[in-house]
Amino acid sequence: MTGVLDLLIEKNHFLDKFLVLNEKEILNFLDGNFDNLDSFYNSREKILGILSEIDVKIEEESIFDLEESVVDSDTKKRVLKALDYKNELVTRILGQDLQILSLIETAKSNIIKELSGVKSTRKVLGAYKSGKNSKSEKINEKV
Q1: What is the pLDDT of residues 88-115, one digit of tens each?
Q2: What is the CATH number of the domain that holds 24?
């Protein structure tokens, strides 16, 4: 069971890194800075890949540990503590992910509004220019 415990501790370490990565990028997003979005996404994917590999190792190790009939209570307590901490980290990460999605969606909406405003302005300017030319032509015809 100590093998599983070591892997859980390693997994929690990478979940902590994931949490810190999110925290840093949320601050950038709050400032309207989305320049590192691709790098952020790639870093998250790398950590998720590592977590997936650790999960496979935990599953493999668990099979061997189940064959052991006696596991001391101290190890069990430490495993349960590591699992509780993992659950806490995952809950916090989910909250961060919701915040990240909200920030990205808000920025996307603002960009769409901005683009619509630009499009409307161009349309008005186009109408003004075409109207101005026809009025000028009518005046020139009268003269």
Answers
A1: 999 999 999 999 999 999 999 988 888 8
A2: 1.20.1270
Q: Is the entire prediction scored with pTM above 0.70?
A: yes
* The total number of structural domains that make up the chain: 1
Q: For the beta carbon of residue 135, count every other beta carbon within 10 angstroms.
A: 10
Contacts for 44 with CB less than 8 Å, ≥ 6 apart: 18, 21, 22
134 occurs within a structural domain: no
Residue 8 has a CB neighbour count (10 Å cut-off) of 21
Which residues lie closer than 8 Å to 130 by C-beta, 6 or more apart? none
Domain for residue 137, yes or no? no
Full domain range(s) for residue 14: 2-103
Token pair listed for 101: 């999605």
Max CA separation in the chain (angstroms): 108
Please tell me whether residue 70 adopts helix, strand or coil conformation.
coil
**In this structure, is residue 125 part of a structural domain?**
no
